[in-house]
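Researcher: I'm comparing several assemblies side by side, and this is the next one on my list. It has 429 residues spread over two chains. Same procedure as the others: predict the full complex and return the structure.
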Amino acid sequence: MKLPPFDYACPTTLPEAVQLLATSNGDAKAIAGGQSLVPMLAFRLAQPSLLVDLRKLPDLRGIRISAKGVTLGAMVRWRDIEDDERLDTAHPLLKAAIAHVAHYQVRNRGTVGGSLAHADPAAEMPGIAMTCDAEIAVVGKSGAHVIQAADFFQGALTTALTPDEIIVEIRLPAWPAGRRWGFEEFARRRGDFAMAAAAVFYDQDANGKAHNAHVGVIGAADPAVEDVLNGRAIDAAIIAKAEAATSAAVDPQDDIHASAAYRRALVGTLVERALKRAAA
Amino acid sequence: MEPRLTLADCLRHHLRLTGTHVGCEHGVCGACTVIVDGAAVRSCLMLAVQAEGAEVVTVEGLSNDADLTPLQKAFRRHHALQCGFCTPGMITTAHALLSEEPDCDAARVREVLSGNLCRCTGYIPIVEAVLDARAAYQPKGRDRSGDCA
C-alpha cells in the first residue's frame, strides 16, 4: 500500500529533534533507516502525523570500543557492524548475531537504534541487548538518561521510550578475552526474521567451571536456565540438561509458521547447539 | 514533493524512470533495488525526501550507451531472466555487490541475492550470470569495458 500522509522534518541538532517529537502530542515518530518503520507505514500499522528524520544528526553514528565495552551509536547500520573488524574480538557474539539480520539491501540502511525502538521479538539486536545486559542511552525533553535493556523492552513492539525520547546509543559491557559463546539462529531463509535464535555466553574459571552464564532466546521469552550452567563444567550432560530446561521454560505461541510444540523443541535445540559451539 | 512519496514512486512517476520495478511495496521482494551513494537499497523503503543530496543510480544508469553492460550480457547469455519483472533489482543488486566484492564466491552471491525474489528462473541461471560477470569488475576488466565502474 502507499504510505499514509504525514509531515516531515529533518532537524540538524538533537535538542531540535526532541523538541519536534515533544510538541506533536505523542503522534510523531523518529525515523532512522526506516527499514521497520516504512513497512509499518505501508501496512498502515503506524500512522504518525510527523516523521522526524535523524539522518542529519551528528554523533549518532560511531562505533566506540574501550575498556568499558562496545558503544554503538543509534544510527550505526548493520553494514557498519559487519565491516568493523575490531568487533571480531571486541564483541564476537554481537558480530555473529548481526550477521543474521535481514538481507543485503536492508543491511545498508537498517540501524541499531531503529531495531531497538521497534522491539520486534524476533529481531537480533534486542535479543543481544537483553542477553548482554546492555544499557540504552536516550535523550528526551527531561534530559538524558540510561535504561537497562531488561527495563527497556516491555513486550512485543513495546518499549520504555516516551514519545519525546530518542535513542542515542547502546552500551554493551566489555567482552573478556577467552569468554565462551555461541549464537544459533533458525529462519526459513537466510536473512528472514528468525523463527527462533539462541545467544549464550559464559566465562570459565581455572577449574573449567562456568560462571557468569547468560542464555538468551530470540523469538520466545528468556528461559532463565543459567543456574543449570553456573558452577558446572559444560559437558554433554549439562548441555542436555540445559536444552531440556529451556524447552520446559519457554512458552511460545502457535502461529502460521510453526506450532508452539515445534517452537519449544526448536528453542531447546538452538540453545543446545549454541552451548556445544561455546564449549568446543 | 509529498513526504510520503517513496523513492521508488518518485523515480517511476515523477522522473518517469520506469526501469525500477515495484513489487511488494514493503521491503520483501527486492524488485525496486537502486544504488544510493554506492549502496544497494530498497527504494520502496526509503522516502524520496531522504535522498536529498544523495547520488541515486537506477538500472537505467548502469550503461552510458545503447549497448548492454557485461553484467546484462551475462544475464542474457545465461538465460537469467524470463518475465523480467525482478531483473532490474537483480541487476542493480548484483552490480553493487560486484563493484564492492569482485572476487565474491557463489555462496556470497546466493546470500546477497536471497533478498531478491524471482518466480521464473529458479535462481541458478542468475547466480551463474553474476559469477560470470565478475571478470568485468576486476580492475583489468573494468578498464577494458569502461561502462561498469
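Model: For your comparison table: Chain A has three domains: 7-53, 63-173, 180-279.
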